[in-house]
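Need tokens for this chain, all 70 residues.
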Amino acid sequence: MTTETYRVTGMTCGHCVTAVTEELTALPDVTSVTVDLVAGGTSDVTVESGTPLDRQDVVRAVDEAGYALA
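Here are the structure tokens for all 70 residues:
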């Protein structure tokens, strides 16, 4: 099990949290996503997975939700 925390910009509300969570949980081996929302700032998104994730996969998933890694 691995845990990584990513910094995500542009999130402002619960809908943003849901969108990012859905995209990240769709990645293979992801077991948990926790978002510490900082509305209008840079939020911490912690992802637990069975194996280490490729950063580019995380970048694409967050981008698909409409946001960007800081």
